# Entry
Amino acid sequence: MWDRAFVGRLRKELPEWVEKGWVVPAGETAIMAHTEARLAQGLNVIPMALAVIGALTLSAGIILFFAANWSEMSKIAKLAVLFGAMWGAYAIAGRGLSGAAGASRVIGHAMLLLGVILFGANIQLIAQIYHIDAHYPNGVLMWSLGALALVWLVPSQPAAVAGLALATLWSGMEILDFGQRAHWPFLAVWGLLVGPALYRSWKWATCAALVSLGVWCFMILIDWPYSGRGASLYLLQIFTLLGVAIHLAGVAMQDIPRLAALSAVVRRTALIGTLFAAHFFIYVGVHGLPWYSWTGRNFDAETWTRGADAGPGMIAFIAVFALAALALALDRYRRVAAARSKRDMAGIALAALAAAVVLANPFMPGRYADAVFMYVAINATIFALLIWMVVDGYRSGERFQVYIAFVAYGAGMIPVYFMEFFTLMNRSLFVMGGGAVLIAGVYLLEHQRRKAAAAKAGDAS
Amino acid sequence: MMKKYRVLLLALVVVLQTAALVAMVAVKHRTLLTGTPVLLKTEPVDPRSLFRGDYVVLNYAIGSLDYGALDGDNAFERRDEVYVVLRRGETYWEPVSIHHDMPAHEPESVVLRGEVQYSGVWIGGENRDGINVRYGIESYFVPEGEGREIELPRNEGKVAILVAVDGGGAAAIKAVLIDGVVRYEEKLF
# Structure
């Protein structure tokens, strides 16, 4: 909010508002003084970003220096330099954070990040000096716990982002290198890092937390066995529902003063994750496109099967997440019921329909040809939700939602082109039909928007 | 007051992180000081770590254990903890039995603790029923460019590793021997 672009736009717009009598001249001066003071107080993104890049570059140089395992240096000298560098970074951070100036705090946070990186480098390099060859993900866990201590005790947003990245790396090693299928301990460390991020309204850390959760889900997916109980199809359903639930939680955060500032970042990040999971759910899980799929099986509607029953555990998970999404949708309904907004009601109805379709899916016949109606229902629901997202985003001024819906729609078009169970003519008609529907929709929307704008202008005059 | 409090908390974090790093060194050094010296046969290969530079991967003869040739237990899964009883051979120490738990053993033997990597081993050109085990002594870091030097004598089998094994089964590399001569020796500082 308090960025230079906003203040610059205010500076341009205010004289016109004064001229039209909307703002008194004294108000113009007061508004500018207030916004410029807030701008000066806040941490500017560019110096912070440059300081962080500087810290990362410096730490990369230090790590490479020790990676050379310089034989001319004694062990005691190496340890002195390793500990000295880490203590030095923290000492400068302490001095910076105790200073009053914004620039001093920027350097303080960058040095905290450097301290976290050097702590990790020290773990690796002490392991090198003393030939410690333990279960290597534990080293990364230890590193992320070092960042966690900083997040809780100092606290520091860059350290929280680093801690989340490290926790994801740790869990990734356990899942992909050591076959820990669903590595639940990750969620404990993740939760301990997310708590301070929400409490302190850290947007970057909140975004990083959701991204790390998404990456964790993706790693579970790629290491999940395709056949046997709990096929990846159902896992993708769970991830889609998890994304919907987090998105709806983000919507509910708008009405909670303490969390309202994080609502947009939660809604947007969850939306990207949901559409990503839904895309894979439809085109890999449901339609089993061979070039998208890691199974290497060729698609044939007559013989294609899901590969596995869902099993009670997977159905329980799907039910829990579907019910969570439904509960949050109902909560939203309760909040907007008084306004009787058709748009909100349509969105809630579509979300409920999507949850119901996803809940019913595990009980469908395994053979593709026997459950075509369900796959048509899934596609139609997702398509309707994308259209709703465009309309809702357009009306509410949430441009991001409009863009991401178009990106998801475009991403869906690509696999449709490659689907082998459509002839080229059918595909051509399908794509042309979709395009015509979109153009007609845009015309209707623009027509309505202009009508609403004209009515508002009439009321104002 | 608030700022002073914050700096004190930062100091606490620095103390915690430093203590964790010192503990890494202390645990390893305790094994070196108190452990029984055991000479093991190995075949080194020379990779490079992004963070840690050149190192030699030590492929021990006791890394592949054949159920048929050993006493003790013989039903291990991936990631299981395994205790291997070693007895002094003609030159190198050799495995005698494998167990799920720490076994009682004779004073002249030692017990080495490891983790099962996978089942099925390739020994003497044959696929045998057994396990591949990691003991936490499989990496040895060397100055840049020296990894190849250790790897080269591989074909003649002249590289041996002297490890210290403590009472809990933990091991630490004490020295690298090439042609029976100590090439690298571990010290605290």
